[in-house]
Amino acid sequence: MDNKEFAKKLEYRTRQFGITIIKLSSSLPNSIEGKVIRNQIAKSGTSVGANYREANRSRSKRDFKNKIQISESEASETEYWLEIINDLNWSKKDVLVPFIKETKELLAIFTSITNKL
């Protein structure tokens, strides 16, 4: 698979990730605390793909690296919120496992891209 094809597939994957995070966030408790975490995870989870898309349209290698690092950071933040949701038992473990797995995989991909630059 060449770089363009990889980028296109990763854009799709990160967009799907954002959609699933939004769906998860809408299932969180309607308490004040639930709304705070809902907002945080929705923002970080959708930012992963938004910044990756921006990276692919960057104007320089430095700009590309910066956007990739933001995607990496947002994936890490999303993982944090998923851990909080898990620790609070706000979602069933079997529901969270695929989210956590995908977050870790995306984090590994962005870390790998950053390390190659």
UniProtKB/TrEMBL annotation:
- What domain of life? Bacteria
Provenance organism: Seonamhaeicola aphaedonensis
**Gene3D superfamilies in the record:** 23S rRNA-intervening sequence
NCBIfam families tied to this protein: four helix bundle protein
Name recorded for this polypeptide = Four helix bundle protein
Q: PANTHER family of this UniProt entry?
A: FOUR HELIX BUNDLE PROTEIN
